[in-house]
Amino acid sequence: ALQRTLEGVHVAISAGGTREPLDPVRFLGNRSSGKQGYALARVAAQRGARVTLVAGNTADLPTPAGVDLVRVGSALELRDAMHKVAADADVVVMAAAVADFRPVALAGHKIKKTSADPDPITLTKNPDILAELVSARREGQVIVGFAAETGDETTSVLDYGRAKLRRKGCDLLVVNAVGDGKAFEQEDNAGWLLSAEGAEIPIPHGSKVQLASVVWDAVTARSAEPQ
Ligand code: C5P
């Protein structure tokens, strides 16, 4: 039988990539498909949650049954939408690929091609939405982040993940190893689910729906514990 373990729970999930506008027709973007965020929304809805999915640019994905979809473009739009939805949510999951930077200037009209060399694109930092949501956290709200990491000679993917969990202050962090055809635009994901209390749950290689199940199991287990 289907476990309706998220009955009566409102979850806010971000998915997909942001597009940072340069002019009315151009943007800086990324390759996020949104599949992981959509899988999280689908599984949460199947488990009985009320789901609000805030989606940036994604592949052509069907909206999961019973999910409220809010479309956004840029990181600043995603930030506004997430703050609004999170104010009423019991669980917040940031699965979106938020651009770290955006162009400083948004041209009012299409940037023209001229015989002169083009102007360089000057960038400014976007806010860290996950860290902001942690600062604005409601009592008892569970906040989940994602991290796509590559390891190097001195520091492993897992160590980078542990440091990011502490830095961001979220309750749970999904760490995905990236590179070598892993994670982005892929059907499958693997990695670890880290908790603020130090739990490290390995997530076996599997579908994004399977990863979503691991995340919702952990969220449900947390909510069951006395805080
Ligand atoms: O720092 P990094 O980009 O690796 O962190 C990834 C996590 O932070 C993801 O959950 C992502 O959705 C979130 N994030 C954010 N705002 C940003 C950048 C990332 O909320 N500007």
Describe this structure in words.
The relative contact order is 0.16. This protein is of the alpha/beta class and 227 residues long. The longest helix is centred in the last third of the chain and has 17 residues, at 208-224. Strand 11 (188-195) and strand 12 (200-207) form a beta hairpin. The chain is globular. The strands form three sheets. Strands 5-4-1-6-9-10-11-12 form an eight-stranded mixed β-sheet, sandwiched between helices. It has helices spanning 35-46, 75-86, 129-135, 157-168, 208-224; strands at residues 10-15, 20-23, 26-28, 50-55, 67-71, 91-94, 101-103, 123-125, 142-149, 172-177, 188-195, 200-207. Helix content is 26%, strand content 28%. It contains five helices and twelve strands. The structure holds cytidine-5'-monophosphate. The site of cytidine-5'-monophosphate has 12 residues, from helix 3 and strand 9.
Provide the fold topology.
Layout: E1 10-15, E2 20-23, E3 26-28, H1 35-46, E4 50-55, E5 67-71, H2 75-86, E6 91-94, E7 101-103, E8 123-125, H3 129-135, E9 142-149, H4 157-168, E10 172-177, E11 188-195, E12 200-207, H5 208-224
Parallel strand pairs: 1-4, 1-6, 4-5, 6-9, 9-10
Antiparallel strand pairs: 2-3, 7-8, 10-11, 11-12
Defining traits:
alpha/beta, 5 helices, two-stranded antiparallel sheet, eight-stranded mixed beta sheet, binds cytidine-5'-monophosphate
Short description:
The chain is 26% helix and 28% strand. With 227 residues, it is an alpha/beta fold. Strand 2 and strand 3 form a beta hairpin.
